[in-house]
Amino acid sequence: MSSMRGRWAWIVGWGLWTSAGGCGDPSSPPPATGTEGTSSTGATEAGTSGPSADDTSTGSVSEPDVTYHGDVRAVLERHCVTCHQPDAVAPFPLTTYEEAHALRESLVLSVEAGTMPPWMPGDGCQDYLGEPEFTDEERQLLRAWLDEGAAQGDPADYVPPTIPDPPGLSRVDLTLAMPEPYLPSQMPDDYRCFLLPWPEVETRYVTGFAALPDDLRTVHHMIAYAIAPDRVAQYEALDEADPEPGYTCFGGPGGPITSPQSAGTWLGAWAPGGITGDFPEGTGIAMEPGSRVVLQIHYNTLVGDLRPDGSAVQLRIDAEVERPAFSMLWADPAWLAGGMPIPAGEAQVVHSFELDPTQFMNLLTDVIPAGTPFQIHSASHHMHKLGTRAQQEILRGDGSRECLLELPQWDFDWQQAYRLADPVRFDPGDRLRLACEWNNEAGDQHVNWGDGTQDEMCLGVYYVTAL
Ligand code: HEC
Questions:
Q1: Alpha-carbon gap, residue 446 to 192, rounded angstroms
Q2: Which of 200, 236, 418, 464 is deepest in the core (most CB within 10 A)?
Q3: What residue's CA is closest to ligand 1, atom 32?
Q4: Is residue 360 part of a domain?
Q5: Do the domain assignments include residue 392?
């Protein structure tokens, strides 16, 4: 197959990982949680007044202008039904008039509140690839449909939407499947790691990542980690100690975390609606012979009948790349030594960290020399269940700030890597700042850094290359 690598420079695949939470900038109060705008177009009871004429548009007085088949169906197919269909991640389908009509109010409100389609980053920070392009026009259409009585209309008026193909991988060189199907059993969530082979016998670069989730009802996210040869034995021991396929893991691939970097190299990640595919053109993550891949899967198990899952990942692999990439994990090393206390009973706990990594880059990676500028291509964030807000930014040497990622409402279920539409340059003298906020008000345990479900983390993950 011919190479189409230039065609899609999407990177995203590598970074959808699983953490939760969102910490916001601790120096500013948390924004209200996304409910603005719901009343801007009038009360929903208007919908019961039937086919009233709408304001200024042409409208016939007796027939609603906006109907399901004429307008709404295409909007839902464009933005909603990938998840809202039978056997997919959303709890109910939106594929017929009856289904949409039954949920018409909450459907419109969720769109106006900005909670659907799901998209976690706050506005005004950065542009990312894969952001849902929901237009004001579409929003107004849904509102008008509701206000005019949510009519069905004539199926003959239906015009199928144009839905661009998801970018995907330009080439699949290796498919890594779970060694055997796994039946999730922990309720309501099962976090499981599977040790996958790495068959290459020379140094190779992973240049793209895609996920093949099997049971779309239960698989809520997948993250692939590269395990270097000298750490493989630790992971084999974890795998062998558990009689079922794989082993339990939560905040990472499972091995001991002695430094932020040892929390694992992210190869790629997927969550529903997330984009995966080729990494930025000319870049890739090196894998040595003798490495393994750990695939972490978060199963949501409250779906009724559970069935065995056999998910897999696909990788694009190249022998050489122009600019080797590095998955940089960012956290205060002091946090790992118990320096990230989140006391029981406290509602707003913030920890932040800022530092210029360029001076010691040689300790983190050999793909970017110390003291040189580098490029950030994507940003991800990881916390656990107590997280509420997150912020990542660059404090420039000249005193200005550049936001990288802001998550005003952290949600553990919707972790992914956010591929920057334009890579961001980081210069020596800049500082990379990470801030996390948690709510432990209801807790009776003091919480600190760790990779278990009762622990917390505050981690920025960046796909970076030399300039
Ligand atoms: C990426 C997958 C995805 C897409 C796309 C998506 N949804 Fe959802 N939706 C979900 C999931 C999953 C839930 C269950 C609650 C949760 O996990 O957040 C949900 C819940 C809902 C709910 C229940 C109330 C709420 O807000 O949680 C409504 C209403 C809804 N979706 C409407 C929509 C509409 C309308 C669209 C399209 C404009 C849409 N969704 C697009 C995944 C999706």
A1: 25
A2: 418
A3: 107
A4: no
A5: no
